[in-house]
């Protein structure tokens, strides 16, 4: 038998064609010729040349071959039906045909198709009368009848066999070429990978042999991509094979077995016997050198495996392509595979699509309540396709919300067994030392900087990055270790398994078991690390006593942490007299509860000490011997007044006191820290009056070749100058005395390159340059009479990617700024220059320029490459962009975001904007425009437009159909707005527009039409004190047949009042609507409250204090259980809320065509159930002023039917405004 069947017998075979024939009739004639023709076309064909017709069933091998084939050719010859094995084979083929899994091509070779259909002549089944076969005849009869009905080839009508075979091969080839990616391929996003791989494979080139690596973590889809490539291109090559699970098969059998199968498949031979693996190279050089082959080696994880199968490109004929899938990037580098395609996890939208595809019939959840659960499961899978499929297939069997909740809790606490198996195999291939590193990262250090983890573990960065090469971690561009959440889960599960799930036996502990061990004081010498989230402890107040750490003699890493936005720590100490293990290298204790450190605090082994947001007033008295300490972080310790003596901390590299507002001074020994690289003393209020000098190195200290030029920071009372800093953030009275920069500022921050690419600059030149990657010098406020900061040159800062010089009253910018070729972001806001150098045209990488409040600037250079440009309050700017060149060559600006608020002197604004066809965001607030520029409608990508406080604006009639957000607050003259029917607005702010007319038609036009199509949430703010009739109209009762699935959501109107002189300001984050359960929708209003400046209000101007918030919320609404809760969320700085909800109304929207009537519910009073005695007092709190003006209606009910005898009442169920439709509709007709 000649075949190319897959290595693993447990997996499906992969064939293009399976040949079914009666050997004694056709093996040496038509079948042999057909097989040769198919193979010659590169069509992978299974032909059984060693059939042993024994037993009463098809062999497992044949069963797998049929199941794994895309098509089957059935040669129905004279004696075909005389073989019960042929009939069993045909029955299996037709079974897969009926399932749609195989295409069947029948050849009626010298027989009449009608004889096959009716089982006449040699196809009669009367011969099978014995008891063993009688029960099978019915299935054979059905298979013969089915195959005879298919379109096939009748040899009796063909000129000769050669012509017949040519037509058959062409038909099969056309069918295989027509097979498109399956819907699953589409869900996986495989097509995008195939397009990228096509570029790397260079299929059309026959001159070279290419090896390409497919690299990525386990379960990410490498094999799927490789299979798709193989199916699409493999047949175009005379020789081709797909060897699956190489590493696993080597473990299950051996490498020689894999090598033997490889040569059998690629050479189409029955057996390739080797005495040793090394002998394979000889065969490869002698037999493969002339073959043009397409080879996929899947799951290669060791160098010797690749060497045995495809050591060199010289083994293969010109034009060959070899794809290697692996989790080990270093393996590819070792074997000189330089072309590598990295397969990464799916993006959020792709992940959700895949999960829904497997979890729900049709790929869509039945209720909105499932959406949050789907997002939760997708977040856990973190874009890993294998996990998304596993979760989806598991969840598809669960039909209740409660079941999903329970399943997700299981997934979040322990890995799915199949996922565990896939991901754990990478861990098993590590050496013992790398396994230890992996487990410590999984349990303690995920998300931490590589450099710091290297120091804490006492391991080289190279050994840790080896885990990245093996796809177990990822090192971000910023140098942080990132481990996939499921790999982290697997690592923690391994720790649990090694300890037999006994917490006190674990090497590493984490939430919540770590606290249990501390509380019970059952820790042992086996415990090496502990990590607890102190805001998520199981009890409201959790405490430990002084003996909690007594038996943890080998504890090295202790992390009690909280996130920045977390509530207060739940962890407390019962006693001040506790003792921590002397072995600690890392102590990270956020919200440390004591005011000082214990005299017995262990410092001998400490490498890092983090005491953020602590209650500390001081650290140590005296001079502690911090000989190994590299990092001290006391961020946010508001009571800390002094730092310790650092004279015995020679290795300290990072000192962070950010937000220590009472810190009064630096220790005089800070200048002795020759290793200090990072210093952050920002937001230390008591240090703001300290005068510091930023200068050059002392003249006696010569620059060191190969090392960047250093800045010297002279701190008051310090004995020495800090001159080794590469990352700094300081505030105070700063005096700059650099040769290039001179002046006064209040803030300085910079960060430097860690390294420069080899050969990028000569070492001697390098010592004359600063290695700044970012530089930020600023004053906190702009003063028109402030002292001018001098910029003489930027030539010594060639590596800057971000430069911010803000509120410095700079008079001129040096021309050599044009040589900052790496610059991407530039902020020169609050300066006094009148122009920018034309040389800035050379800044080809600069994407963002901010010139806010540069009041004197009149003209900009040609900056066609910009994507973000902020020109707010550039009041004398008379030329925005030089459009002359773009008119000549037909080019367009790349601008995506543009701020022109309060830029009133720009001529021909509409014409200029017409050249910015990539704009997505445009701010024209506080301008004198009367009508919206016509060219705005022609900007196809524009999504957000700001026209706030355009006092002369009278009408809006050129609104682009693509616009999604429009802000026109404070446009006091605006009286007319025309919204096109095809508008796309979902956020619309017209607050403080008192002249606005025709409000109700505007609301009707704003809310989405075509309610059968999928829409997103809509939100508008419009002046008004009464609920529009759109919501108040009476409606008939709901029809009995109306169900929740026939609704598409609801519209809501909420009336709020804002007390003068406060104003509200809205943004896309000013509201949210969430579904709490199957019945409750909560609308949270979060407007910004501010006092308007004189420039935004006119004297005597009548400002409406009442606003209508209009919402559309899509979703399947269960109207019989519907409940709405509108709430205001205001800043804690207000002692009494200046904004109140007055009233609101809701309108439930049925699908178009369900019923001609739409159904309404409205509520005129916001306070709850005044008819109840217990609520009378709360009713008194109603805004009496509003009531007296008629802005609220004293009616506590709304009529829900047009007939007087069918009136029904609704009540508000709580002070938060719960609006329950089940009370209204429960007795509807």
TrEMBL record:
Where is the segment annotated Disordered? 1172-1210
Provide an example Pfam family for this protein.
NB-ARC
- InterPro entries per record: Disease_R_plants (IPR044974), Leu-rich_rpt (IPR001611), Leu-rich_rpt_3 (IPR011713), Leu-rich_rpt_typical-subtyp (IPR003591), LRR_R13L4/SHOC2-like (IPR055414), NB-ARC (IPR002182), TIR_dom (IPR000157), WHD_ROQ1-like (IPR058192)
So which domain of life are we looking at?
Answer: Eukaryota
A single Gene Ontology MF term assigned here is: ADP binding
The record's Gene Ontology biological-process terms are: defense response; response to other organism; signal transduction
Q: Where do Basic and acidic residues bias regions lie?
A: 1172-1181, 1191-1209
Keyword set, alphabetical order? Leucine-rich repeat, NAD, Repeat
Which intervals hold domain TIR? 13-176
PANTHER family under this entry? ADP-RIBOSYL CYCLASE_CYCLIC ADP-RIBOSE HYDROLASE, LEUCINE-RICH REPEAT-CONTAINING PROTEIN
The name on file for this protein is Leucine-rich repeat
């Amino acid at each position: 038998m000649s075949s190319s069947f897959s290595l693993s017998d447990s997996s499906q075979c992969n064939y293009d064609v399976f040949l079914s024939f009666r050997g004694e009739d056709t093996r040496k004639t038509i079948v042999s010729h057909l097989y040769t023709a198919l193979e010659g076309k590169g069509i992978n064909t299974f032909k059984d040349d060693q059939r042993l017709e024994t037993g009463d069933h098809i062999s497992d091998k044949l069963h797998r071959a049929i199941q794994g084939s895309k098509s089957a050719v059935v040669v129905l010859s004279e004696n075909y039906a005389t073989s019960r094995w042929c009939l069993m084979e045909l029955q299996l083929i037709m079974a897969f045909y009926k399932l749609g899994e195989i295409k069947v091509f029948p050849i009626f070779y010298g027989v009449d198709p009608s004889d096959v259909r009716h089982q006449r002549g040699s196809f009669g089944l009367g011969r099978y009368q014995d008891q063993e076969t009688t029960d099978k005849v019915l299935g054979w009869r059905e298979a013969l009848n089915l195959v005879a009905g298919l379109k096939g080839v009748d040899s009796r009508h063909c000129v000769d066999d050669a012509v017949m075979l040519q037509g058959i091969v062409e038909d099969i080839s056309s069918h295989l070429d027509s097979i498109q990616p399956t819907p699953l391929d589409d869900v996986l996003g495989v097509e995008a990978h195939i397009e990228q791989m096509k570029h790397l494979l260079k299929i059309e080139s026959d001159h070279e042999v290419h090896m390409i690596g497919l690299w990525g973590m386990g379960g990410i889809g490498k094999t799927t991509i490789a299979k798709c490539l193989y199916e699409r291109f493999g047949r175009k090559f005379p020789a081709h094979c797909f060897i699956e699970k190489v590493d696993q098969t080597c473990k299950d059998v051996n490498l020689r077995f894999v090598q033997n199968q490889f040569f059998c498949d690629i050479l189409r031979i029955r057996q390739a016997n080797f005495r040793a693996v090394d002998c394979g190279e000889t065969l490869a050089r002698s037999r493969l050198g002339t073959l043009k082959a397409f080879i996929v080696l899947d799951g290669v994880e060791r160098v010797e495996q690749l060497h045995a199968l495809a050591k060199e490109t010289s083994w293969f004929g010109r034009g060959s392509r070899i794809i290697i899938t692996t989790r080990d990037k270093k393996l590819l580098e070792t074997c000189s595979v330089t072309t590598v395609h990295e397969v990464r996890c799916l993006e959020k939208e792709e992940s959700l699509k895949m999960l829904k595809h497997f979890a729900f019939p049709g790929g869509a959840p039945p209720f909105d309540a499932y959406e949050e659960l789907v997002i939760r499961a997708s977040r856990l899978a973190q874009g890993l396709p294998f996990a998304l499929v596993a979760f989806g297939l598991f969840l598809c069997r669960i039909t209740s919300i409660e079941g999903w909740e329970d399943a997700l809790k299981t997934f979040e606490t322990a890995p799915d067994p199949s996922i565990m198996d896939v991901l754990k195999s990478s861990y098993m291939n590590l050496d013992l030392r790398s396994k230890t590193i992996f487990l410590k990262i999984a349990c303690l250090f995920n998300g931490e900087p590589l450099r710091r983890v290297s120091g804490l573990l006492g391991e080289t960065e190279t050994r840790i990055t080896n885990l990245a090469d093996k796809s177990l971690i990822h090192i971000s561009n910023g140098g942080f270790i990132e481990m996939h959440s499921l790999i982290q889960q697997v690592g923690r599960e391994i720790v649990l398994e090694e300890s037999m799930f006994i917490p006190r036996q674990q090497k590493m502990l984490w939430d919540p078991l770590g606290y249990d061990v501390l509380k019970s004081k059952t820790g042992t010498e086996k415990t090496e690390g502990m990590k607890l989230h102190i805001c998520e402890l199981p009890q409201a107040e959790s405490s430990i006593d002084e003996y909690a750490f007594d038996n943890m003699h080998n504890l090295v890493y202790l992390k009690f942490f909280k996130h920045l936005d977390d509530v207060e720590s739940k962890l407390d100490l019962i006693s001040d007299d506790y003792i921590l293990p002397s072995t600690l290298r890392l102590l990270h204790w956020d919200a440390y509860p004591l005011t000082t450190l214990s005299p017995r605090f262990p410092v001998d082994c400490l490498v890092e000490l983090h005491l953020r947001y602590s209650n500390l007033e001081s650290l140590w008295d005296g001079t502690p011997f911090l000989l190994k300490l590299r990092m001290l972080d006391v961020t946010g310790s508001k009571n800390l007044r002094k730092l310790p003596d650092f004279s015995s901390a020679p290795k300290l590299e990072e000192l962070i006191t950010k937000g220590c507002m009472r810190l009064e001074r630096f220790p005089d020994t800070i200048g002795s820290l020759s290793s200090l690289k990072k210093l952050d003393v920002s937001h230390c209020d008591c240090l703001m009056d300290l005068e510091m000098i930023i200068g050059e190195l002392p003249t006696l200290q010569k620059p060191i070749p190969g090392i960047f030029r250093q800045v010297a920071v002279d701190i008051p009372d310090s004995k020495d100058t800090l001159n080794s800093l590469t990352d700094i953030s300081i505030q105070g009275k700063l005096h700059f005395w650099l040769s290039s920069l001179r002046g006064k500022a209040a803030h300085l921050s910079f960060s430097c390159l860690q390294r420069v690419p080899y050969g990028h600059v000569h070492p001697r030149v390098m010592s004359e340059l600063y290695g700044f990657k970012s530089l930020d010098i600023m004053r906190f406020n702009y003063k028109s009479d402030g002292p001018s900061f001098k910029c003489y040159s930027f030539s010594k800062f060639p590596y800057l990617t971000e430069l911010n010089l803000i509120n410095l009253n700079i008079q001129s910018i040096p021309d050599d700024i044009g040589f900052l070729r790496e610059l991407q972001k530039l902020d020169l806001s609050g300066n006094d220059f009148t122009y920018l150098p034309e040389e800035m045209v050379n800044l080809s990488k600069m994407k963002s320029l901010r010139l806010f409040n540069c009041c004197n600037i009149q003209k900009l250079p040609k900056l066609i490459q910009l994507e973000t440009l902020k020109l707010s309050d550039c009041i004398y700017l008379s030329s925005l962009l030089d459009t002359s060149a773009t008119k000549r060559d037909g080019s367009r600006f790349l601008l995506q975001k543009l701020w022109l608020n309060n830029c009133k002197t720009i001529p021909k604004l509409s014409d200029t904007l017409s050249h910015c066809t990539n704009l997505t965001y445009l701010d024209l607030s506080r301008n004198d425009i009367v009508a919206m520029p016509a060219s705005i409608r022609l900007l196809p990508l524009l999504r957000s437009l700001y026209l706030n406080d355009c006092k002369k604006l009278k009408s809006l009639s050129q609104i682009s159909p693509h616009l999604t957000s429009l802000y026109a607050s404070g446009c006091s003259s605006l009286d007319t707005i025309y919204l096109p029917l095809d508008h796309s607005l979902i956020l619309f702010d017209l607050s403080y527009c008192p002249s606005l007319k025709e409000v109700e038609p505007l609301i009707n036009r704003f809310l989405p039409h075509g309610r059968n199509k999928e829409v997103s949430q809509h939100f508008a703010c419009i002046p008004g004190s009464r609920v529009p009739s759109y919501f108040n109209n009476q409606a008939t009762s709901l029809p009995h047949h109306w169900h929740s699935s026939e609704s598409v959501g609801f519209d809501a109107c909420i009336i709020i009042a804002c007390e003068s002189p406060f104003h509200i300001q809205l943004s896309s984050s000013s509201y949210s609507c969430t579904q709490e359960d199957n019945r409750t929708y909560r609308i949270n209003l979060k407007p910004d409250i501010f006092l308007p400046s004189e420039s935004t209000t006119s004297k005597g101007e009548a400002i409406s204090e009442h606003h209508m918030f209009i919402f559309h919320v899509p979703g399947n609404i269960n109207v019989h259980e519907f409940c709405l809760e509108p709430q205001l969320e205001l800043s804690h700085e207000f002692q009494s809320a200046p904004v109140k909800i007055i009233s609101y109304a809701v309108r439930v929207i049925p699908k178009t065509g369900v019923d001609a009537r739409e159904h309404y519910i409205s509520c005129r009073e916001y306070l709850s159930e005044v008819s109840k005695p217990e609520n009378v007092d709360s009713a008194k709190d109603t805004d009496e002023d509003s009531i007296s003006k008629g802005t609220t209606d004293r009616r506590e009910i709304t009529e829900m039917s047009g007939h007087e005898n069918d009136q029904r009442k609704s009540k508000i169920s709580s002070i938060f405004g719960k609006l329950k439709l089940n009370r209204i509709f429960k007795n509807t007709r």
